[in-house]
Amino acid sequence: MTYRVYSGPPDTEAVPRLEKERWLYKEFGLLDEAIGWARHVNDGGRVTLLIEGDDGTRLSKSEISAALCHPEAMDRKSKVQHH
Q: Per-domain residue ranges for the chain?
C-alpha cells in the first residue's frame, strides 16, 4: 500500500486535479507515517494539501488539519474505511 502526501505553500488551498502529476509528493507505506509527515510539514511552515492512498483513501487539507488536531478521529475513520 502506498500513501502520497502532497504539500505546498501556506496560502494554497488544494492540489489542482489536472495538475496533480506535476506536483511533488512524498510516499509512505503506512497511513500513520503519512500523517506523521503531514504534521512535520505543517509544523515547518508549509501545508499538507492532500493525502492519497492506493486503497482509495483521500484526505483533503481540512480533513488532514482535523486529524492533526484530533488524532483519535483519524483512527475511527481508518477503521470504518477498512471494514
A: 3-81
The residues that bridge with 52 in the sheet, in sequence order, are: 4, 58
Alpha-carbon 52 to chain mean position: 6
3-state secondary structure the chain: CCEEEEEECCCCCCCCHHHHHHCCEEEECCHHHHHHHHHHHHHCCCEEEEEEECCCCEEEHHHHHHHHHCHHHHHHHHHHHCC
For the chain (83 residues), the mean pLDDT of every run of 10, in chain order, is 93 85 93 96 93 96 90 52 44
Answer for the pair 74, 36: CB distance below 8 angstroms, yes or no: no
> pTM higher than 0.90, yes or no?
no
